[in-house]
Amino acid sequence: MANKVNRIKISFPNMGNCWVAFKSLIESIPGLDVVLPPPVNRKTIELGAKYSPEFVCFPFKVNVGDFIQTYEQYGVKIFINAIDCGPCRFGFYHAVQERILKDLGYDLTIIQLDQADLLEFKWLKTFNILHDMTGEKNKIKRFYNILNAAIIFLKKAKITADMEKLEAYFLPRETKKGMTVDIMNRMLKLLDQAKTIKQVQEARPKIIEEFLKIPIDESLNPLRVKLTGEIHVTLEPYVNLDLKRKLGSMGIEVHQDLSLIDWVLHKFHINFHRKALEEKARPYLPLDIGGEAQWVLGEYIEAMEKGLDGFIHIYPFTCMPENTARGIITAMDEPKLPVIFFSFDEHTGVEGMRTRLESFVELMEDKRRKGQNIKPIEKYQNHQKMIDEIIKNHRSTVDNIIDIIENMLKIGLSINPIEALNQINYIVNNLEKI
Amino acid sequence: MTLAENITTVSDLKTKYKVGIPRALYYYKFFPFWHELLTIMGCDIILSPPTNKSILEEGSKLASSEFCVPLKIYYGHVLWLIENHKDLDYIFVPRYVSLNKYHYFCPKFLSLPDVVRHTIKSPIPVLEYEINRKKRSNIESAIILGEQLGVSKEKSIEAYLKAMNRFNQYKEYMQKGNLFHDTMYYIYPNLVEKPKVKKQIDGDEDLSKQFPLNILILGHPYNTYDPIINQNIIERLKKYHVNVILLEQVPEEVFNQRVQINRKFYNYWNMEEELLQAARYFLLEARDKIDGILFLISFACGPDSLIQELIMRDFKKINIPFLNIVLDEHSGESGLVTRVESFIDMIRRKKYSNLT
């Protein structure tokens, strides 16, 4: 039976730690072998910048580099790239990239993964294409594969986001330098090895246990900084010059709500945090203009209310929505947080950024010494509470929401009406828990 | 009824508001429509002057350096209105989100009123006109605009219909090959100044006259028609006896069918749709009508950075010369002239080489 299925090599572009979740999303379909692209490196960016249009946004160039390197090194000919038919450039990526690479003589296909509105279930098309390639015709098996893939994807994405939060918490406090990063890397591999839903659930406590082994200096009261911006640049460490870890090693606690799971939940229309941010940003920007502009504004206002020490906004050079957000943030009247903007492209240098970052940190330290924070630091409790929840392995709201999505998926994909009714009941019960 | 007749003037009506319109961005596309709509609603229209160096400089100072020039110029025009007309009741800032169900405008248009309010911090209130066909019909949008001016629903609908009528007339007139600035002067002699007539010079005038060329200019109307942004490129081309084909002169029916990219998905940007449709027309049906293409693209223009790449690759395949001109506030005149001249010479030599 096994030799009936064609084995196909398939890959997708880099985006930080998201590979763990994406890999399992595709791997859950038997017959597909996921080949990870080499981590973003200097060569990737050189190749990307060379073959891309001159002032297209930076993630486009990085993706092109990823495709070329994966194709050349591993002979992968099928790639997946997400699309979003919104007002920003992201939706055009796969079409123009495929065109450029084909003209260069690379015989590859880029399959689109439509994530414009996940409840329209357009993303199922991608799975149909994938199943057609493997030759799986049995509809029930297809249904099972998709369901399995989606659930493991959501769970892994959530765990990855938690790990990133833990990393940001432990990094400035660790007494044994380098231990946090080391554990982070090892645990990502551990998570990657979990292949079934059950294994993923079992992996979670193990991962947290490992993080708790890091000796920390509890007396430390680090500066707290909000880091946000365009999703690819924020999540891909090579692109943002490893800004997050750099800040961590400078003794600064980075708060970053932006993650893959945060985005996916938003696309399922049940990300309550983002809805709250939209409300906050509405007086300044009443509609979603693509990118993360509206939420960045919301997060800036939220960071002021929470009394953080600073705000860092990063985006690709010439990004249309993020630049609008930047303009509005710069011109706000309210008592201001120290704020710094970084735009990234292939010319961004480490030294220039370090100098700017150091003076930014000095500004924040100075403000705190003089007690000029907008709100006293003691009032800021939420983040600590969240970390505690992750550590104690409590079920958070997000976990409940993931459960709901799982069940929505089961209904959406279900052929059996009785099964669907059961699922609706399950959802109603779960909604009450929230 | 011709285009310039029966223009609604404020003297016919009781003027209530003085409204400023920045002469930038979609002024170059929708002004006849806005003018009719607003005057019927009882507004006296003040237009900022044609872009000049100081407007460009003021705008660039305030705007983020990563924005495109047209937007920086828009900032400059708004600042000019704030500075010179303190008695304005409103500044008219449209928010173009989508003209139909499938398309979006560039994110910079989506947030234009917010930018004027919160980044430029205009002390004059913003008269916002949101066109969003994904959410509401055009008539509803006109009614919402009317509400801000205290105009009744019936009056708003009437204004919209008349404005639409005027706009269609304008489009027909432009299709006959009339130039934008001449047309504007023809319709609004009181608002718009007379376009300067340039003397024909050049020693080898007669020579180039014998060898005419057809060049298609692709680009946003605000890049094509603003002589400060594009260093007066249309006049220059005429001087070289080039027959310039503009988007407005492409037959109407070309713009009916949506453009599919790589046979995979439909384009979702509004202005780019027109560029792509025109490109498709000349690629498939009217290949012999053009000898070359000039693409005017402003630096940091998001949508164009990708569209231009696709169009360029298509025309390369069928061997039609393609020149991409990047416009920004630092671009010098001589550099542009040299490039355009050599481009024209190259095409002319190629086209007529077997004659000589």
CATH class value of the largest domain in chain B:
Alpha Beta
Please mark out the parts of chain A with pLDDT under 50 across 5 or more consecutive residues, or reply none: none
**Poorly predicted ranges of chain B:** none
Biggest sheet overview of chain B:
4 strands, parallel
Strand content of chain A: 5-15%
CATH topology of the largest domain in chain A: Rossmann fold
Largest β sheet strand count, sense and barrel closure of chain A: 4 strands, parallel
Order of helices and strands of chain B: EHEHHEHHEHHHHEHHHEEEHEHEH
Model description:
The complex is a heterodimer of chains A (434) and B (356). Chain A has 434 residues and is of the alpha/beta class. Chain A has helices spanning 19-27, 42-51, 58-74, 93-103, 123-134, 139-170, 179-193, 197-212, 231-235, 243-249, 260-267, 272-281, 293-306, 320-331, 350-369, 382-391, 397-413, 417-433; strands at 8-11, 32-34, 78-83, 109-114, 223-229, 252-255, 310-316, 339-344. In chain A, strand 1, helix 1 (19-27) and strand 2 form a beta-alpha-beta unit. In chain A, helix 1 (19-27) packs antiparallel against helix 6 (139-170) and helix 6 crosses helix 11. The relative contact order of chain A is 0.10. Chain B folds into two domains: 10-187, Rossmann fold; 205-352, Rossmann fold, CATH 3.40.50. In chain B, strands 2-1-3-4 form a four-stranded parallel β-sheet, sandwiched between helices. A four-stranded parallel β-sheet of chain B has the order 6-5-9-10, sandwiched between helices. In chain B, helix 2 (53-62) crosses helix 3 and helix 6 (138-148) packs across helix 7 (153-175). Chain B is globular. The A-B interface holds A 53-57, 83, 85-89, 91-92, 94-96, 98-100, 103, 112, 284-287, 289-291, 293, 317-321, 323-324, 326-328, 330-332, 343 and B 63-64, 66-67, 97, 104-108, 110-111, 114-115, 118-119, 121, 261-262, 264-265, 268-269, 299-303, 305-306, 308-310, 313, 326.
